[in-house]
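Tutorial handout. Part one gives the primary structure; part two gives the three-dimensional structure as C-alpha cells.
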Amino acid sequence: MKKIICVLGVALMIASVAFAAGKMKITAKDLPGLKGTWEGIVSFGEFEAATSPMKLEILNDAAPLKAKVTITNIPQGVANQFSVPSGQNVLENDGGVLTSQGTIFWASPQGTGFFEISKGDNKLHFWYFAKGIKGDATLKKKK
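Part two.
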C-alpha cells in the first residue's frame, strides 16, 4: 500500500511539473507580492460534487514560506476520507520552498501529502495530494 501511495505521489509531482510549465514561474522577487490572503473554492478529487470555500494565507515573503490554509464547510463524507472533522479545518505549514519549476511547494511533515501553488494572471493555482486524494483550487487575492 505504501508503495502505491509513493508511486502516486511521484506521478502527481511529475504531473504538477508539466502543469506548472504552462503557468508563469514564481521567482524570489515575486514573493513579497504573494504575501497576503488568497480565497477561492477547493475541490475534493473523487468527490466531484463536493467543494468548499478555502483561504490560503501566505504569512511571510522569504523562503521558507509560511502558509495557513483554512477550509470551511467540509462535507462529512470528505471529512471521513481525510480523517478530519467536518466543518472548518486549518492547516499550517512553515516549510514552503521555491522549486526550479517556478512553483512553491509545501510537504506535510509526515510525508503523506503536499500542496503547491503556481502563478496565473492575478490568481494562484493551488493543488494538493493527501491521503490518496488530489484536488485543486483557483485563488484570487483578497484586497
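Part three, for discussion. The chain has a mean pLDDT of 85. The chain is about 20% helix and 50% strand.
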